[in-house]
Amino acid sequence: MGFFTNHKKKSDKDLDIVALASGTMICPDQIKDAVFSQQMMGQTIGFILDSGEIVSPVTGKVEVMFPTGHAFMIRMKDGTGILVHVGINTVELNGKGFKVYVKQGQDVKAGQTVVRLDLKAVKQQGYDTTTMLIVSEPINKTIPFIDFGKVKKGKSIVKKVYV
């Protein structure tokens, strides 16, 4: 084993959280919806999307997948629940402009495509496409996210903590 060998265990990767899309990661108070900006459902961050591909931010099991594609929840192996809500009030579109790629009960890997939305069409309908990632369970868990700013889909957004 060389000096520069990657010592990261596979189990560590299974607990990582990655950017659910390419774009700009924003703090909750920049989200234009009180439920999300005030973090009423748990620790929340937002994403201003550069494209309409939404990937799973974690490895786990899809516990909830709304047929409309506007929201889904994934349970990580350590029990953490991650909720993704695509856009604000987009449930009102009844799935128009959304294509769902996974099913409830399916195992997914971090970075796997879950939903695609037609950004232009959704915006033309007057909807805000800011997408939220909420650490919904356990609510008392705090994730050390990286600094806000530009992110690339599938890249880790958790600060590496050295002990």
Automatic annotation (TrEMBL):
Residues spanning the membrane: none
Protein name in the entry: PTS glucose transporter subunit IIA
Its localization reads: Cytoplasm
Mind listing the UniProt keywords for this protein, alphabetically?
A: Kinase, Phosphotransferase system, Sugar transport, Transferase, Transport
Q: Name one GO biological process term.
A: phosphoenolpyruvate-dependent sugar phosphotransferase system
Spell out the molecular function terms from Gene Ontology.
Answer: kinase activity
- Secretion signal: which residues? none
GO cellular component terms attached to this protein's record:
cytoplasm
Q: List the NCBIfam families hit by this protein, alphabetically.
A: PTBA (TIGR00830)
What's the domain of life for this entry? Answer: Bacteria
Q: Native species of this protein?
A: Floccifex porci
- Residue span(s) of domain PTS EIIA type-1: 33-137
